[in-house]
Amino acid sequence: MPSNKSVSDAPIVQFTNCRILRSHQLQREDLWVREGKILNPEKLFFDEKGSADIQLDCKDSIIAPGFIDVQINGGFGVDFSLATDDFKSGIDLVSQKILSHGVTSFCPTLVTSPPSVYHQVLPQISIRNGGAHGAGILGHSVANLSQAEEAVQHGATFITHLFNAMLPFHHRDPGIVGLLTSDKIPAGRRVFYGMISDGIHTNPAALRIAHRAHPKGLVLVTDAIAGMGLAPGRHTLGQQVVEIDGLNTYIAGTKTLSGSVATMDTCVRHFQEATGCSVETALEAASLHPAQLLGIEHKKGTLNYDSDADFLMLNDGLYVQATYIAGEEVWRQDALGM
User: What does the pLDDT read at residue 242?
Assistant: First the structure.
């Protein structure tokens, strides 16, 4: 067969023996990648007369788009809201560590802070591509329903962690929750809402209600704090002493929750278990939907042809086995002897 070099010197990698999440379904197809992009095999065969340079047996793994976390406040002892001299190294650490949890892109976020903190921290956060160094960097409301509807009519598109730190649901004014079924959303506008699916911040019944009311707008977020990834026990985080107990983080000496420490892959698994939704739906809530929210679905959040080759290999239990960014392996479970 003719060489691929007539089109590109870059190697073509064919991932075989896998189930690919494409068009909302797991499909038994091969995945073809070149130069960090997903290839259309028909064009490769018929237009370029090309073939694979490397074949990788995925051993019946699920291949899904990389997870995108649009709300993460820190992790692994790093707090994005602290204006420290080594802030960049903190971002670097988190971006590298979350690869093992399937996150290939993320938006660093800050908890509510004084204006001076925003002025110090935000200039230090810059957009960058992901790679072996870590995941790529892309960039709490008490409103009532009428205010929320007005906000959407003026362009708002995202409800931050639904049910948490907002007015409770009431039958005469359902608050922001009411946006999920509001009839005052402009035509063609989709409202997205984040859910912390850790089994702690949102009762499974509330998760099911939200999902059934507006499934296409659900975006899984970790809303993780610096305690994510730390061992159980007491830790000093910023000016607070907190105690980590499983997925619970309390202000030390109290039973007051102090943020989420769940990883994105944990949230995906809990969401699928709590709602009984399909595997495809659970995976898209952490990939396609956040990409749509950010307006980058043409290049991330799917495995469509010509999109970025950011993807995961998972087993049937939705545990991450390997993470790829731009077609390159950046983390593998086997490498840790696990």
Answer: 85
Q: How many CB atoms lie within 10 A of CB 336?
A: 8
Q: In this prediction, what percent of the chain has a pLDDT beyond 90?
A: 49
Please give the full DSSP string across 249-293, using - where no structure is assigned.
EEETTS--B--B---HHHHHHHHHHHH---HHHHHHTTTHHHHHH
pLDDT at 258: 78
- Number of separate helices (H) and strands (E) present in the chain: 8, 19
Segment 287-301, tens digit of pLDDT: 999 998 888 999 999
The whole-number pLDDT of residue 136 equals: 95
Hey, which residues does 233 pair with through a beta bridge?
244
From the list 255, 198, 253, 191, the residue with the least C-alpha distance to 223 is 198
pTM of the model: 0.84
Is 90 in contact with 47 (CB distance < 8 Å)?
no
| DSSP sequence for 202-248 | S-HHHHHHHHHH-GGGEEE---B-TTTTPPSEEEEETTEEEEEETTE
Place of tokens 């028909």: 42
User: Residue 33 CB: number of other CB atoms within 10 A?
Assistant: 23
Which are the catalytic amino acids?
223
Q: Which residue is it, tokens 């769940």?
A: 262
Contacts of 69 (CB under 8 A, 6+ apart): 98, 103, 105, 106, 107, 221, 222, 224, 264, 286, 290
